[in-house]
Amino acid sequence: MNKSILLIISFLLFFSCKEVKNEKEVVEKRPLVTQEMMETAIIYEANIRQYSPEGTFNEFTKDIPVLKELGVKIIWLMPVHPISMTKRKAKGDIFVSDIKDPEERKKYMGSYYAVSDYRGVSSDYGTKDDLRNLIKVAHENEILVILDWVPNHTGWDHKWIKEHPEFYTKNTKGEITDPLNEDGTPVGWQDVADLDYSSDGMRKAMIADLQYWLTDEAIDGFRCDVAGSVPVEFWQEAIPQLRKTKDIFMLAEAWEPELLKGTNLFDMCYGWENHFLMVDIAKGQKSVKDWDDYMVKMDTVYEKDDIIMNFTVNHDENSWKGTVKESFGDADEVMAVLSYLAPGMPLIYSGQEYDLNHKLKFFEKDSIPKIKGKYFELYSKLQEIKIKNPALNGGKNAASYTRIKTSDDEHILAFMRERDGKQVIFIANLSDKPISFTTDFDGIYNNYFTSVKDTFNKEQKTNLNQWVYLLLED
User: Fold this and answer.
1) pTM for this entry
2) Does residue 190 sit within a domain?
3) CATH at 391
4) How many structural domains comprise the chain?
5) Secondary structure (DSSP) of 252-286
6) DSSP state letter for 363
7) Does residue 418 share a domain with residue 388?
8) Digits of tens for pLDDT over the chain (474 positions)?
9) C-alpha pair distances (Å), 179 with each of 118, 209, 228, 231, 259
10) Which residues contact 71 (CB under 8 A, 6 or more apart)?
11) Is the dihedral of CA 273, 274, 277, 278 positive or negative?
12) Residue 453 is part of which domain span?
């Protein structure tokens, strides 16, 4: 063989091996799901469709370093899969096919949760390579990426409809049905077909599709839609298999404690009760005493290593019920701070960091603002103390929570978080009127937001205007 040809081959082999080595190094450097990460993590719900005017993976990827500034350690991607055309929802009970005007039909993109292919990605967002780059950039910024998974139902275009009709729930006529209530009435999700978990073949196919994203696409876990509507026996079968593949983070859109039981099921569930309680307090329908009852209940219902996701809004609450301001009124800021200070992991939904002040359309294209305002500054400050102070650890080995008695426990919420000799104290007037009160503790503390030293003793009165709070460090 000609020497020059041998030299060229050697040269190509050298750089080929070097490239393989570099790819291996990237894989080895990807962030791992660890208990340490969970203690200080902030989770971000990414609505790719609405995050930018373009609504693409690439536009979102540009801002991942910005999310790192906010302390985000987990990105939850709302469903990225192709959406079924058959029975595609437009609004209310109207399907796209019901609309006669072809130009009007183009406006409606359907529900993210009507998945037609569990292994595919919607071309509306970009290509699978674009998604891979998003994951790569997130890992480079030490941020995990979990995928929104829809296990309860599929869109009507899913290949299983034709290839495996036995995977679906059927009525007395043998027809595949949309999801039904226990009494047999429709849930209202006519754009999706209900999966039958008595089918062993379906369960195996579902687990295989979940495994694909862990092994082939470097996803770090899943947020599982309406997880409580899927038999817990499936999760007991599936999640241990997924964990054998690699370390993952699992979030259940559910509150049921049995979904988190032990060490091999979900890591975190929704703080639905927490959320609705905060809304009711903001509206004057409940008081701090109800919060105290809730915290006592949490200690009895959940295990010590269960993580609760705290939030003031998510995609459902925003699109169907309204903005944070509409839900909380003048209590919006204090409740945002409480979602960081209470035991658990805080959530930021796309646009919250930019003072999102409108309901994002659910079936149509929309967009969030991109101007930094009050909340970007607030979240930046809150992430600093959450990451640096172990007294705000909120994972599987969370800091303690101790209620501090006050002279007005119906309106004043005061509690201490403590771990490793560090303390953080939260005091808030959760009412719509000024309150003068005393607290049952002594000490000199640093006011986190003003950097002024505040002195407290049991005889001293503290005055707080409506919805005003203090965040103190020892």
Assistant:
1) 0.92
2) yes
3) 3.20.20.80
4) 2
5) ESS--GGGS-SSSS-SEEE-HHHHHHHHHHHTTSS
6) S
7) no
8) 444 444 444 444 444 444 444 443 444 454 578 999 999 999 999 999 999 999 999 999 999 999 999 999 999 999 999 999 999 999 888 999 999 999 999 999 999 999 999 999 999 999 999 999 999 999 999 999 999 999 999 999 999 999 999 999 999 999 999 999 888 888 999 999 999 999 999 999 999 999 999 999 999 999 999 999 999 999 999 999 999 999 999 999 999 999 999 889 999 999 999 999 999 999 999 999 999 999 999 999 999 999 999 999 999 999 999 999 999 999 999 999 999 999 999 999 999 999 999 999 999 999 999 999 999 999 999 999 999 999 999 999 999 999 999 999 999 999 999 999 999 999 999 999 999 999 999 999 999 999 999 999 998 999 999 999 999 998
9) 18, 21, 14, 14, 21
10) 40, 42, 379, 382, 383, 384, 386, 387
11) negative
12) 412-473
Residue type, 183: D
Q: Is the same domain home to 83 and 211?
A: yes
* Alpha carbon distance 75, 143 (integer Å): 7
Place of tokens 């997924």: 242
From 352, 370, 399, give the residue that closes a domain.
399
Tokens 């903001």 found at: 282
